[in-house]
Structures are given as C-alpha cells and as structure tokens.
Amino acid sequence: MEKMVTILFHETVFGPIHSRRLGTSLGINLMPNDGKICSFDCLYCEAGYNDQGAGHAGISSREEVKDTLEKKLSAMKAAGHGLDVITFSGNGEPTLHPEFGAVVDDVIALRDKYYPEVKISVLSNSTMIGREDVAEALKKVDNNILKLDSAIDSTIRRIDRPANPDFCAKKLIEQLKRFSGQCIIQTMMLRGKHDGETIDNTTEEEIEALLSAYLEIRPAEVMLYSIDRPTPESNLQKVERDELEKIATRFREKGIKVQVN
After folding, report:
1. How far is residue 26 CA from its own chain's centroid?
2. Of the candidates 61, 122, 162, 174, which lies 20 to 30 Å from 37 by C-alpha distance?
3. CA-to-CA distance for 246 and 109, rounded, in angstroms?
C-alpha cells in the first residue's frame, strides 16, 4: 500500500457541506487535522488508509471543540444560514476520543442554544460501543449511525480490516442489539478484489446473513449505500442504485425500514 496523505478534513469544525444522507451538515472532526486515527482501516475509506499516519496536530481537546463550534454556530445564526444536522465524522473514528461523552454533551447544549431544531448525528464504525460511556453518549444523539458492513466474519474483516484481532461479527451484533432499536445501521455494499482476494457482500449468503442480523438488531432504519468517491483500494466496484433497491426490497419485505443512498 502506498503511503500518501488523503485525509479529508483540516479543521475541527468544517462545512457546512451537503450530505447525501443527512442534508446540510456541519461536521465535527475529533481526530487530528493533519492525520488519521481509526480502529478500522476500510478498503473503501475516502480518507485513505491508516498508514498515512496520525500527523502531528493531535486530537482536538474538549474545550477546542466547544469553543470552535460555538463561534461557528453563532456566526451562522447571525448570518441567517440554515442547518439540518451537526455530524460527528472526520479523519477517523470519533468515539475514540477520550472525552467523547463530554463532547457530545457540549454539542447538545450548543445545538439547543443556537439551532434547537437541528439534529445531531454520529457516524461511527461501532468498534467502541462495548464501552458503557460511549454507548450512553450515543443514546443521547438524534441519529446514532452505526456501521455493519457484513454479518460474516471473513467478509467484515476483509472489508473493514479492524485493528482489534478479536473483532467478530457475532459480538458486534450482540452489542448493537443493546441499543434496543435506538440506532441506524449503515451498510456499505461493494464488490471487487484486494490482495488477490474477492470482496463481495452482495451475494445470497451475505444478504441472508445481513437480513438475519437486522432482524436481531431491529434498528430504527438501515442505510444502504455504495462507493461514491475514490477509494484507497482501486479494485472495488460500485453497486448501482437499482441493485441496491432490489436488495432493500428484500429487507423491507421483512419489515425493516431501509433508505437507499
């Protein structure tokens, strides 16, 4: 893998930008502004592979996030700008932040002060939800969006490449069930090759395994999407919308709410 810096966000608070899933979104990047820190190393991550390094800036402090966000929201409000959502995203996994729960509390308070009608979303890869403080913080936000790219160990490990050697789909599904439906599951559908291995989570076996997992988790909604931007692994193929809709129909027939993006 070639080492190159492909991080997306060079600010702690960025945007607003248009999200195809969430609308007009103001982003919060809790990871370094000049590097990437993540507990997954996904083949499709638009921020690139982890081996580009963590940079030198370090993780944003709780106070930095709070002060920067307040200045941004105050300026936007004064200018009469609209906003749909404040989204935790950025250059890695936001729930790795050591004060994630406290940051969430600060963001909720600032949202209530400046844009009380706006939703707060967290895009998480689900790796830290076994920690009680993280799980409790995620229950406080409006859109707790958690990743499940496959319900089969070999596939999820090939696609998401978790840092934890003990990571497995079964344990993840059990942890997702503890949200009692207070979550949105996001699944990236793709196919292709990596290091000579076939990658495909659209097969019949994969779809049946995902269906079984969704029925166990009972999320508020499932978001199905596919590749939209360049990926660090060049041999991946986008699953087109008509195929995504066919897969979604199978899930909907079992009573699962599905959004296709």
Report:
1. 15
2. 174
3. 41
Q: Which residue is associated with the tokens 């406290």? A: 102
Cβ atoms 259, 21 nearer than 8 A: yes
**pLDDT one-digit tens code per residue, 8-36:** 788 999 998 887 667 789 999 999 999 99
Per-residue buried b or exposed e for 119-146, using 16+ beta carbons within 10 Å of the residue's own CB: bbbbbbbbbbbeeeebbebbeebebbbb
Q: 91-101, pLDDT tens digit by residue?
A: 999 999 999 99
Q: Could you tell me whether strands 85-89 and 119-124 are parallel, antiparallel, or unpaired per DSSP bridges?
A: parallel
The first and second tokens of residue 45, run together, are 């991550």
CA dihedral (59, 130, 135, 138) positive or negative: positive
> pTM of the full predicted structure?
0.93
